[in-house]
Amino acid sequence: MISAAHAGGLTGGRDNHRWEKTATMEPAARTDLRAIAAEMDQARQTFHHLLDQATDTGLRRRSNGTRWTNEQLLFHMMFGYLITRPVLVIASIFGRLPDGASKAFAQFLDAVRGPFHLVNYLGSCAGARVIPYSHMRGRFDQVIAVLERRLESERGSTLRRGMHFPTTWDPFFTGYMTLADLYRYPTRHFYYHLEQLTLTNTD
């Protein structure tokens, strides 16, 4: 993953005042929020670069290590951010319930991992048709903006809430994830799949 230090600040220095209300948080928590937001914005800039460099031939080419084309994989990389929004809501609800509730839910999801992986694959195939390459830039910018606004409204106690997760669904799902972990999840997912793109033919 590209670190926050390489992100050049939050969204190119825009809205420098937006994090002032976190001044009452502990320094480590403030830094964590800034780092997460910077990582998201770096991913946004990287995604723009990928779209700018993409050609019709490159988009149709099979990616490395997946069954998706590059266009489908680009959608899947964006989808990691799209799905994080509802997952944050679900985790917030389970975070207020007894621990056993999310543990049982995670066990159930692990049990249906086969259908999930099929839906995950077919979903990105269909998703790239619904939101094709030509519309991905705006949609990606939109979801990053939404996540950043939600992130800046969070408090330390809220970010420590979490739930159990199905570890067989995704390599970046751990047995228990806090909201802070979930905000970082889509960017880890993004850079993992970035290595599988074959937009530039190196043969």
Q: Can you describe what's shown?
A:
With 203 residues, the chain is mainly α. The protein has a single domain, classed as Four Helix Bundle (Hemerythrin (Met), subunit A) (Up-down Bundle). 64% of the residues lie in helices and 3% in strands. The chain contains eight helices and two strands. Strands 1-2 form a two-stranded antiparallel ribbon. The radius of gyration is 18 Å and the shape is globular.
The SSE string, one letter per element, is HHHHHHHEEH
- What order do the strands of the largest sheet run in, or round the barrel if closed? 1-2
Average pLDDT value? 86
The level 1 CATH classification is Mainly Alpha
Main β-sheet description: 2 strands, antiparallel
Poorly predicted regions are: 1-25
Share of helix, binned: 55-70%
The counted number of beta strands is: 2
**Tally of domains:** 1
- CATH hierarchy: architecture: Up-down Bundle
Which assembly state applies to the chains in this document? Answer: single chain
Structural class: mainly alpha
Radius of gyration equals 18 Å
First-residue to last-residue Cα separation: 26 Å
In CATH, the topology is named: Four Helix Bundle (Hemerythrin (Met), subunit A)
Note the overall shape: globular
Helix-strand blueprint:
Blueprint: H1 27-53, H2 56-60, H3 70-94, H4 99-111, H5 113-130, H6 133-153, H7 156-159, E1 162-164, E2 176-178, H8 179-194
Antiparallel strand pairs: 1-2
Helix pairs in contact: 1-6, 1-8, 3-5, 3-6, 3-8
